UniProtKB/TrEMBL annotation:
Residues 135-603 form the Peptidase S8/S53 domain. Residues 32-110 form the Inhibitor I9 domain. This is Subtilisin-like protease SBT5.3. Coiled coil: none annotated. Keywords: Hydrolase, Protease, Secreted, Serine protease, Signal. It is found in: Secreted. GO terms for molecular function: serine-type endopeptidase activity. One of its GO terms (cellular component) is extracellular region.
Length: 759
């Protein structure tokens, strides 16, 4: 399948966003990352000296080497990035100490109510956890920076910065030491990789700060969702009014700005990861990713950086992307917690009152009051001279006749999912129109902020609207400002845009969390995506970029609850306690039609933070287990070296890849009957007995041995076997089921996905 345009960042920001490719590097030179793995140098200076010597071997002199180098990776691993000819890159790749040389590519940037919906409010309110509970946890956020004056980043009530933190507050344009505090404890920024691709940032004629200060809004939004302080009575022009706070309001933030105008260069991200690991963050959050298909783990900068983080005990939580289709999920390495997006039980209705007094339900973030009714015209009836009616129905530029739409509400259709919806309203406004009704069944739950009163309608409403327009000679309508509706059912539903698995070897994404219409802090300078380009301090946006920080916050809470837990144990706790049920006790469906979902939509299910705090059993693994998994999945020594940065030999007979102790079971080509092993670690006080139950995948009989696990004390590990006996071929499709361990209190669930190749 070919996707003309795919994207892995905030949907809302993507639509309507353009950037001219204006870089002017010398024709023959490309920005390469030269990666050398872990190092034994005593300090950064020594690494940089060695880097320059290495680079001088191809540029001719140390001075030329210094001029060519852009980034030095000198802390958590060794390497550099530089402008090189393919010839020079090739020569460097031949060096013994060089692991790999690859081009720096681009990545895209991929709450009042949501925490209540997740049940986390009750945890804090019931004094189960004090609000400053997470104050020892440091979360690194790689994004577009932060707006430090936002009330969400107030450090009121926070104790001193944890001693373990080794990061810095780097000053820059409009960002001083005073902009760091006990909440924003570190701030760094990286622009060289971006500038090499697009030219000096100044040349792009867009607002930016050469510092960690956020002019895009995205970074402030994600950081405040994770660890924003409690700010009462916030809203977006009255919509979604409530108390804003991060999921871990006591946690500290270390800000790594590597994204500019919604794009982030591999070389800059890798620098941020090198620093973050060294600075001592506990969790890293990346609401960004490459366009699908993602490169293999061995060639992908984020996968490589995340592997070093994992090896250093840091959980990396990352967004799966907003690419809608099967097989498009990114950031799928098993050492990354991959996050899909779903709705919460809140919607924003901007309804339409027709001249015949019928009310149609519409959706948008529309605070603008329309004072009276206006005439309705279909875009296809307002085509500019020489434009076919069908073309005009999409309301694209220069297709509508201003004489016909002046003073009217125009009815438009979305052509493809990636259409720029905001632009349609601008075009209507430019032509003198006063409102827009957009027929867009597939995006109706995403809160768009249009420049004129506009609303999105789906199937049922479309029929009523069309019937009215057909029968009424002078149809009129009025679009009402948005009302916030809560306790919506069913919820959650997987968002229509959320990228889907499968990925080749592991069943991704891993988990889903709130990512539709999330209110959080914003940069007052980022007005592009707000109604009438108004400056706002809090904004509502959608994307897996928004669900990822929800999961990051929950990981931060777990980390403070269980400081000794590995990143894999935290992942396991979040995944095995997830739910596949919505608030009507039905199975979670997928927007827009409530269609049946599978683990390829949401992995283990929808996050349940309260249960995750006390999962009962944990599936743990370490970086050696990851290597064994990659070995038995067929990774070559050269590939492994690309990842680890050092000579890595596979064990003689590593456990089978399906025995990798992941908290889910996936097999993409199961050949006949098979036995799979897993090991669980018990975390509880009293002796207990867990009993297995299984939801059989269609056509496969599943048995668990032993079927009961008796634990006497915490920390005890027991290995069990799961036998799969297929009775029929699944014909290239996956069949799904689950394994559940239950002791009457805890339910520990692992999804199963099998493609039965033969019986
Ligand atoms: C940034 O700093 C300059 C110089 O102090 C000042 O004129 C400008 O108003 C500042 N911009 C913002 C957005 O604070
Ligand atoms: C930025 O503005 C300058 C001067 O107005 C113009 O020459 C240049 O083309 C603009 N660049 C972009 C990328 O729009
Ligand atoms: C109308 O749309 C079609 C298909 O998108 C396109 O090929 C054609 O050029 C358009 N016609 C005009 C006059 O814009
Ligand atoms: C539409 O095109 C005209 C020129 O044909 C341009 O001036 C205007 O800015 C465009 N509008 C949008 C929203 O792109
Ligand atoms: C949902 O249903 C509508 C109306 O039947 C249809 O037009 C649309 O394509 C469907 N969308 C998806 C993603 O299945
Ligand atoms: C190692 O990484 C480089 C750079 O991405 C790539 O060209 C090479 O193919 C990789 N090697 C293997 C064995 O994957
Ligand atoms: C499945 O296993 C059988 C017996 O070992 C073998 O003949 C066959 O080629 C295998 N098929 C696949 C698809 O691996």
């Amino acid at each position: 399948m070919g996707f003309a345009q795919v994207f892995c960042f905030t949907l809302f920001l993507f639509i309507g966003y353009t950037l001219v490719h204006g870089g002017t590097p010398k024709v023959s030179e490309t920005h390469y990352i030269v990666y050398m793995g872990e190092h034994s140098h005593p300090n950064s200076e020594s690494v940089i000296r060695a880097n320059h010597e290495m680079l001088a071997s191809v540029t001719g002199s140390i001075n030329q080497a210094k001029a060519a180098a852009l980034h030095h990776y000198s802390k958590s691993f060794q390497g550099f990035s530089a402008m090189l000819t393919p010839e020079q890159a090739h020569q460097l790749a031949e060096h013994d100490s060089v692991v790999s040389v690859f081009e720096s590519k681009l990545n895209r940037l991929h709450t009042t109510r949501s925490w209540h919906f997740l049940g986390l409010d009750s945890v804090y309110n019931g004094n189960y956890l004090p609000l400053d509970f997470t104050s020892n946890v440091i979360v690194g956020v790689i994004d577009s920076g932060v707006w430090p004056e936002s009330k969400s980043f107030s450090d009121e009530g926070l104790g001193p910065v944890p001693k373990k933190f080794k990061g810095e507050c780097i000053t820059g344009e409009n960002f001083t030491q005073a902009n760091c505090n006990k909440k924003i404890i570190g701030a760094r920024f990286y622009s060289k990789g971006f500038a090499i691709d697009f030219g000096p940032l100044e040349s792009l004629n867009q607002t930016f700060f050469m510092s960690a200060r956020d002019s895009d809004g995205h970074g402030s939004h994600t950081a405040s969702t994770i660890a924003g302080s409690i700010v009462s009575d916030v809203s977006l022009s009255g919509m979604a009014r409530g108390t804003a706070r991060g999921g871990a309001p006591g946690a500290r933030l270390a800000i790594y700005k590597a994204c500019w105008f919604n794009l982030c260069a591999d070389a800059d991200i890798l620098s941020a990861m090198d620093d973050a690991i060294h600075d001592g963050v506990d969790v890293l959050s990346l609401s960004l990713g490459p366009d699908p298909p993602q490169p293999t783990y061995f060639q992908d900068a984020i996968s490589i950086g995340a592997f070093h983080a994992f090896r250093n005990g840091i959980l990396v939580s990352a967004s799966a992307g907003n690419s809608v289709f099967p097989g498009t999920a990114c950031n799928v390495a098993p050492w990354i917690l991959t996050v899909a997006a779903s709705t919460i039980d809140r919607e924003f209705d901007s309804n339409i009152y027709l001249g015949n007094s019928k009310v149609l339900k519409g959706f948008s973030l529309n605070p603008i009051k329309m004072e009276q009714s206006y005439g309705l015209i279909d875009g296809s009836d307002a085509a500019a001279p020489g434009i076919p009616a069908r073309n005009a129905s999409f309301c694209k530029n220069n297709t509508l006749d201003p004489a016909l739409i002046k003073g009217k509400i125009v009815v438009c259709i979305t052509e493809v999912f990636t259409d720029d919806r905001l632009e349609k309203a601008i075009i209507i406004q430019q032509g003198g129109g006063v409102g827009m009704i957009l027929i867009d069944h597939n995006a109706k739950d995403i809160g768009f902020q249009f420049v004129i009163p506009s609303t999105i309608i789906g199937q049922g409403a479309v029929q009523e609207l069309q019937a009215y327009m057909r029968t009424e000679k002078n149809p009129i309508a009025r679009i009402y400002p948005t009302i916030t509706v809560t306790d919506v059912k069913p919820a959650p539903e997987v968002a229509a845009f959320s990228s889907m698995g499968p990925n080749v070897i592991t069943p991704d994404p891993d988990i889903t969390g709130p990512g539709v219409n999330i209110l959080a802090a914003w940069s007052p300078l980022a007005t592009e995506d707000t109604v009438e380009h108004r400056s706002v301090d809090y904004n509502i946006i959608s994307g897996t970029s928004m669900s990822c920080p929800h999961i990051t916050a929950i990981a931060a809470i777990l980390k403070s609850f269980q400081p000794s837990w590995s990143p894999a144990a935290i992942m396991s706790a979040i995944m095995t306690t997830a739910t596949t049920m919505d608030n009507t006790h039905g199975l979670i469906g997928r927007d827009p039609n409530g269609t049946q979902t599978t683990p390829f939509d949401y992995g283990s299910g929808h996050v349940n933070p309260v249960a995750a705090l006390n999962p009962g059993l944990v599936y743990d693994f370490n970086s050696q287990d990851v290597l064994n998994f990659l070995c038995s999945a067929g990774a070559s020594p050269a590939q492994l070296k690309n990842l680890t940065g050092e000579q890595t030999v596979c064990q003689k007979s590593p456990p089978a890849s399906y025995d990798f102790n992941y908290p889910s079971i996936g097999m993409s080509n199961m050949n006949g009957s098979l036995s799979v092993y897993r090991t669980v670690t018990y975390y509880g006080k009293e002796p207990t007995v867990y009993v297995a139950s299984v939801e059989d995948p269609a056509g496969v009989e599943v048995t668990v041995t032993p079927a009961q696990l008796k634990f006497r004390k915490t920390g005890e590990k027991i290995t069990f076997r799961v036998d799969f006996i297929p009775s029929k071929n699944s014909n290239g499709n996956f069949v799904f089921g689950a394994l559940i361990w239950n002791n009457g209190i805890h339910s520990v669930r692992s999804p199963i996905g099998l493609n039965v190749v033969s019986v």
